[in-house]
Amino acid sequence: MNEETVAIALARAIRARRLALGFSQDSFADRIAMHRSYYAALERGQRNMTLSTLGRLAQGLGCPISVLFIEADL
After folding, report:
1. CA of 21: how far to CAs of 25, 46, 61, 70, 71, in Å?
2. Model-level pTM?
3. 1-28 pLDDT, tens per residue?
4. Residue 39: which of 21, 55, 52, 26 has the closest Cα?
5. DSSP for 3-66?
6. Which of 17, 45, 59, 70 could be disulfide-bonded to 8 (CB atoms 3.0-4.6 Å)?
């Protein structure tokens, strides 16, 4: 699995969880204190996220990072 595939798989898992929680991209980006356009690029798999950014996203989604990897089938 290449780097781009991992980013896209994680992005899909993050998006699915965000939608399940009922957040728009704007409201979720506000919740985690991240610029909306940067968050949107992460969610589209267009940017690589650092471990600290992934942790921030997971915390905002109310789950451990490991759950995102499981939901992304990684």
Report:
1. 11, 23, 8, 18, 15
2. 0.90
3. 777 788 999 999 999 999 999 999 999 9
4. 26
5. HHHHHHHHHHHHHHHHHHTT--HHHHHHHTT--HHHHHHHHTT-SPPPHHHHHHHHHHHTS-HH
6. 45
- Return the number of other C-beta atoms located less than 10 Å from residue 4's C-beta: 11
User: What residue segments make up the domains of the chain, in order of their start?
Assistant: 3-71
Torsion of CA 45, 51, 54, 56, to 10 degrees: -140
| Mean predicted confidence (pLDDT) in 21-46 | 96
Q: Cα–Cα distance between 44 and 47 in angstroms, integer?
A: 8
Q: Judge: domain 3-71, CATH 1.10.260.40.
A: yes
